[in-house]
Design brief:
Helix content: 25-40%
Number of strands: 18
Strand content: 15-25%
Shape: globular
CATH superfamily of the largest domain: Dipeptide-binding Protein, Domain 3
Largest sheet: 10 strands, mixed
Radius of gyration: 26 Å
Strand order of the largest sheet: 8-9-10-1-11-16-12-15-13-14
Number of domains: 3
Distance between the termini: 38 Å
Length: about 525
């Protein structure tokens, strides 16, 4: 005989199922709730301190920017921005912009949003005490002042076609009345949920650390229609397998990145989920050490002809597809497919093993050639696979290579000190290509240009491209710069990835912004 408790549970379960059906108008709380399977948990949701992707995804539901750049658009295209906390803006002169805030904008505690909040936020993101990732773009370069309670003036120290981008992309606006009284050195340790007050479409309802975080649609949201999704729950999984199990057991509706092909196939076999492919903002490469810190050339890799031969010896498209899947592409330069300067017409060295062998034979005829080492971090099995495949391709062309695997802190130390012949790395793009300065120009030697590549012609083209206000002309300069870079072969660019998201079939209107994949949550619908 069944107990009354079991019968009651069955009845409640049946009512919930009926409520989620299309034919029954019975209300159901789970019908407006989305569960996200997330790998790892953010350490904080205080905007200047957020560095993890999952923290950005959640924080972008709570906090607003002044304006938003259309995904995939050029940051120098002034028509590519849509209103955010600012309903409109205008350029006053070559260094100054004025932003007009939404008059009805409110913090989630009911206080009005004012220009003082914006000024406070720019100061916080520029503060070395907090160490925001945007600090280098803002400190000493951008200054915000309040003209009145709803008008902000933002002044720049230098002319740049990316001023609107710098004024809007980096800074999420914080409530001054909440954070001004808290010393900034204490912000990182602050765990009071009552302090996580934004002006965005969702507010924090609860945070069960180590397990989940729940957002609820905020009724004070004034920028548009109330979200159809009333609650969003992030379930934190300790690793990708645990995250995938939340999807396959139907305990979650979405997963940002499913992972390898076999994992994608497992989701594909479940008809209640659909798979959405979108480009990732990552590109992978093998970089050569061309010179040391004093500019003295590497005894072998300082030779441009050898570097070109080593690139031509590797069948990069086949290698990329074999390791990462059929949708993986070889980038035409140091960029992911998200970067607006991507151009299939950029000239690059193609796979030509015969030409590589002939060039290496000529080099050998001039004198002895020693082995080349490929440095990889122990944290990435895929990078080691890439290194082994490249090692074999070089062997066939006539160059012996070794593969050295070290722990990640050692990997970073060896890069910074120039203790390597070549290494396999990866960089993450943002919408602006200006990160290429730190990665590949002479100015980047103290930063991320560990291989010490330096070509005045390339550097000059980067400066021209970075200062050009016309998108078409700027893209032409970037293309010419990439042609120059590829001809010198300071690196071989190996892959740019395609991510695959798992999405429950009951969700509609999912459009993925790769820079903040859950940013469309307020516009999603549920059947």
């Amino acid at each position: 005989m069944r107990s009354a408790g079991i019968v009651l549970a069955m009845v409640v379960g049946s009512l919930l199922l009926l409520g989620c059906g299309e034919r029954r108008p019975v209300p159901c709380r789970t019908c407006s709730t989305v569960v996200v399977s997330a790998i790892s948990e953010p350490s904080t949701l205080v905007p200047p301190l957020i560095f993890e992707t999952v923290g950005r995804d959640i924080g972008d539901q709570i906090y607003e920017r002044l304006a938003y750049l259309t995904p995939g658009a050029s940051p120098i295209d002034l028509a590519a921005y849509r209103p955010g906390l600012a309903e409109r803006w205008e350029r006053l002169d070559s260094l100054t912009w004025r932003f007009h805030l939404r008059p009805r904008a409110r913090w989630q505690d009911g206080q009005p949003v004012t220009a003082s909040d914006v000024v406070f936020s720019f100061d916080a993101f520029s503060d070395s005490t907090l160490g925001s990732g945007a600090q280098s773009y803002l400190a000493g370069r951008v200054r915000a002042t309040a003209e009145d309670s709803l008008t902000v003036r933002i002044a720049f120290a230098d002319r740049s076609p990316e001023q609107l981008y710098d004024a809007t992309y980096h800074v999420r606006v914080l409530p001054k009345h909440v954070w001004d009284s808290i010393p900034r050195p204490r912000w990182a340790a602050d765990t009071n949920l009552a302090h996580l007050v934004g002006s965005g479409p969702y507010r924090i309802q609860s945070w069960d650390r180590g397990r989940s975080l729940t957002l609820a649609a905020d009724t004070t949201w004034s920028a548009g229609d109330q979200p159809s999704i009333r609650r969003a729950i992030w379930r934190f999984a300790p690793d990708p397998d645990a995250g995938l199990n939340l999807i396959l057991s139907h305990e979650a509706d979405l997963m940002e990145t499913v992972g390898s092909k076999d994992r994608v196939d497992r989701v594909a076999h479940d008809s209640s989920f659909k798979l959405i492919s979108y480009p990732a903002g990552v590109y992978g490469f093998l970089a050569f050490r061309i010179a040391d810190g004093a500019g003295r050339p590497h005894p072998m890799l300082g030779d441009r002809e050898l570097r070109r031969a080593l690139v031509q010896a590797v069948d990069r498209p086949t290698l990329a597809r074999a390791l990462f899947g059929g949708e993986t592409k070889v980038p035409p330069g140091p960029m992911s497919r998200l970067l607006w300067i991507w151009d299939d017409g950029i000239r690059q060295l193609s796979f030509d093993p015969s030409a590589a062998k002939l060039a290496i034979a000529r080099i050998r005829a001039k004198g002895p050639v020693r082995k080349i080492d490929i440095l990889v971090p122990a944290t990435s099995a895929t990078r080691r696979q890439l290194a082994v495949a490249i090692q074999e391709a070089w062997r066939k062309a006539g160059i012996e290579a070794t593969v050295t695997t070290v722990e990640f802190p050692v990997f970073q130390e060896r890069l910074s000190k120039g203790r390597f012949d070549s290494y396999i790395g990866a960089y993450l793009d943002e919408p602006s290509p200006r990160g290429l300065r730190d990665q590949w120009t002479r100015a980047g030697w103290p930063a991320l240009n560990y291989g010490r590549y330096g070509n005045p012609a390339f550097d000059s083209l980067v400066e021209l491209a970075s200062g050009e206000e016309n998108s078409g002309k700027a893209k032409g300069f970037w293309r010419e710069a990439m042609d120059t870079l590829n001809s010198d072969a300071p690196a071989m660019f190996l892959y740019t990835l395609t991510n695959v998201a798992a999405v429950s079939d009951r969700l509609r209107g999912i459009e993925v912004d790769p820079y903040s994949w859950a940013s469309g949550l307020p516009r999603w619908k549920m059947r």
